[in-house]
Design goal:
Distance between the termini: 23 Å
Radius of gyration: 20 Å
Order of helices and strands: HHHHHHHHHHHHHH
Number of helices: 14
Structural class: mainly alpha
């Protein structure tokens, strides 16, 4: 099997989504680490200016070739740019000022549930019961992480401003992933991402000028700031979005969003390595439960013995 054949297979979809998650997991760590150094909209603007410049040599030709379709789809692309880039990342960086890196990734894992609900009730996608059972199992793993294994803490749970901001990004993420699944087949992945970079950067500008009082202000470009910007532009933007969008197109938004549940253990590892935030036994156990929930959602229904009359179905009845 050559590359062109492999990249459209279900296996490729899962490989792409895992690569996307690994590239993106540091997003929350950087947001926390840069919270006291660079203002949120400024950091987001520099991130996407950098991503646009990095991807421009690869994306310009496809964007120009498909410019008629890109202009025709400006509403859909604007929606994707706002929910996936301009609003989303600005709010994430704002949340980083008042909440911990691990908390940010935990609350963000509500996105799979929101995505499944949007896909089923708004776009009429049929999702099996194992999908929701897997979401429940993985959510339980997230709750164990949030409460540090003490479920009684749920009775006194309080939200900081940053936690509520991250909750809003979970809603944005559900909207983005459902829409990108509908748009992906209409233009190439290269043109789609290049257009999102340009639209997204443009829509960040009002937030930036509101933040700076209408002035052109830049942070001090220390080594930490430069390294963070390079990571955000190349790994957490260009590579992450390309892998993620390709995976959503192959396996669908609900399945792709299940892998959001891997963000807490991966972000915890990143926070431990970069920010010296501790990782304990409960986080390891919760990570195992989260993984079990994902595997059950993806494969749980495949181990049920089918009745004879269920062995053959019409192609129109097969759903993702």
């Amino acid at each position: 099997m050559n590359w062109n054949q492999f990249r459209t297979t279900q296996t490729a979809g899962y490989v792409f989504i895992i690569l996307g998650i690994f590239n993106w997991s540091g997003n929350f760590v950087v947001a926390r680490g840069m919270a006291d150094v660079v203002e949120p909209a400024t950091l987001n603007l520099l991130r996407w200016v950098g991503a646009s410049l990095v991807f421009l040599p690869f994306g310009f030709r496809a964007l120009w070739r498909e410019r008629v379709q890109v202009l025709r789809m400006w509403k859909e692309l604007s929606f994707l740019a706002l929910t996936g880039i301009s609003l989303y990342d600005t709010v994430v960086f704002m949340a980083g000022e008042t909440t911990e890196a691990l908390n940010m990734s935990l609350i963000a894992t509500l996105s799979p549930l929101f995505t499944a609900l949007v896909a089923q009730f708004l776009f009429k996608e049929k999702l099996g019961q194992t999908m929701y059972y897997g979401i429940v199992i993985s959510t339980f793993g997230v709750v164990l992480l949030v409460t540090d294994g003490d479920l009684s803490r749920l009775l006194t749970l309080q939200f900081a401003r940053g936690d509520l901001l991250i909750l809003s990004t979970a809603l944005m993420s559900a909207a983005y992933n459902t829409m990108v699944n509908k748009v992906a087949g209409k233009i190439s992945q290269t043109a789609l991402f290049m257009a999102m970079c340009l639209y997204g950067t443009f829509y960040i500008l009002p937030f930036y000028f509101w933040e700076t009082g209408g002035r052109l202000l830049m942070p001090a470009f220390t080594s930490d700031v430069v390294i963070s910007l390079v990571y955000l532009a190349v790994f957490a933007s260009v590579l992450c979005f390309l892998f993620w969008n390709a995976a959503v197109q192959i396996i669908g938004a609900p399945k792709a969003m299940l892998f959001y549940y891997t963000l807490p253990p991966i972000s915890a590892l990143g926070a431990w390595l970069v920010l010296d935030e501790p990782v304990n036994r409960n986080q390891v156990m919760s990570g195992a439960i989260i993984l079990a929930g994902i595997l059950f959602a993806l494969y749980g229904g495949k181990f049920k013995r089918k009745r004879p009359e269920e062995q053959y179905v019409q192609p129109s009845e097969i759903t993702h």
